[in-house]
Amino acid sequence: xxxxxxxxxxxxxxxxxxxxxxxxxxxxxxxxxxxxxxxxxxxxxxxxxxxxxxxxxxxxxxxxxxxxxxxxxxxxxxxxxxxxxxxxxxxxxxxxxxxxxxxxxxxxxxxxxxxxxxxxxxxxxxxxxxxxxxxxxxxxxxxxxxxxxxxxxxxxxxxxxxxxxxxxxxxxxxxxxxxxxxxxxxxxxxxxxxxxxxxxxxxxxxxxxxxxxxxxxxxxxxxxxxxxxxxxxxxxxxxxxxxxxxxxxxxxxxxxxxxxxxxxxxxxxxxxxxxxxxxxxxxxxxxxxxxxxxxxxxxxxxxxxxxxxxxxxxxxxxxxxxxxxxxxxxxxxxxxxxxxxxxxxxxxxxxxxxxxxxxxxxxxxxxxxxxxxxxxxxxxxxxxxxxxxxxxxxxxxxxxxxxxxxxxxxxxxxxxxxxxxxxxxxxxxxxxxxxxxxxxxxxxxxxxxxxxxxxxxxxxxxxxxxxxxxxxxxxxxxxxxxxxxxxxxxxxxxxxxxxxxxxxxxxxxxxxxxxxxxxxxxxxxxxxxx
Length: 530
Description:
Elements lengths: L4 H15 L3 H10 L3 E5 L15 H10 L1 E2 L1 E3 L5 E3 L2 E6 L5 E6 L13 H14 L1 H7 L2 E8 L2 E6 L6 H5 L4 E2 L2 H4 L16 E3 L9 E6 L23 E5 L4 H10 L4 E2 L7 H5 L4 E4 L6 E7 L9 H10 L2 H8 L6 E2 L26 H10 L7 E6 L3 H16 L4 E6 L1 H7 L13 E7 H4 L23 H8 L7 H18 L2 E7 L3 E4 L2 E2 L14 E2 L1
């Protein structure tokens, strides 16, 4: 629902009340709270396993408590993280990795090569780059307590890139679980510890500084380099109402609000204590994901109908009234990547083409089947765009219905493959960084390998054969040519439909600094509070 002027007035009253607090009280609160940072993000994770789900709230949780073998620097080049040194054999088929000394789990035990081997094997069961990697792997084995090797059947020069996208290392006994079975222990080796006793499911989660964590010596650079924790704790709070969240930010009750609605940008920008900041310079590409297994979208023409139905400008106006934050996207691979191209994009028409969409639904044999759209009520952008989509479908005679829940509910329900009658779904809206959208081997939703694919489970052997070649080609021109062929197939199959690009600013108090701007992850290390 679009935020009304009346709601803005209420938010202003709340903010005024907050600022009417005596200065002494505010000063005392700040003094006692200077080592604690409070964040309001897209939601509080209900699933904590980063292999089981790709939700950003889960990924951020994982980045805090786990560590990675490699990490991407600010230029998106993989750099060693847990790895001290590594090498590759002359035939380029054996990679050997030695861990840094002093790595330890939060339970006091040392990190071993066996933990890494088990984590790689579990990760590869679910992640598309891991699945692809395993088609070329002959063996992954421990050599000694700190050394392991990956032996390939065929060369794979992108191996370090795959391990940096990212692979969170877990204890061997946790990683022995299958990738579809949730790990719930939350014991990592990362810069923060998860405070189980302080957790309030659905309300707040607390992360404490891991005093025994040994950062790398290199300066921080993107997600690489030293992970130095400069505060004692970080509390992730769940404030679902945007006006309440902004009022809390103005009052100093929270330090960071990740998804302020565009209607509140003016109120935030006019506050001398607050700042709007763009962390993800590549922006987020919003898209609707389609369940290809169930009616009506098991029929390709029904999926193609959605391409013609969507009016990107209408969706973007809801995401932001300021056009400087938005952009039309027609390439399957986003708007700012080397893979971006214009192949098979003649379907795009400014304002959409509802009549063409209606015709295609008819050709698909649509017979009034219910179309259920998962609506995340605690994510305003997702909630608002879901309502626009439902209304657009109804206008052309489609029986669309919203299924409201928090994002945790969406994450749980979208994993169900069954029909609507058994708790299934038809469509949900999400977003991904434009950077990630140009990575066919590492972005989950860019795979079309059926049962192994991301939610929606699209299946195209022709597309997958081309995607497998991505690791083999070496030049930019070769990859661009491959991307054009893949996009031609993708826009015929239609596993998802783009809604446009939004470069969304976060809102923070000016006393909070050191935020690292990288796609898909908001690290908790390096931040500090004056």
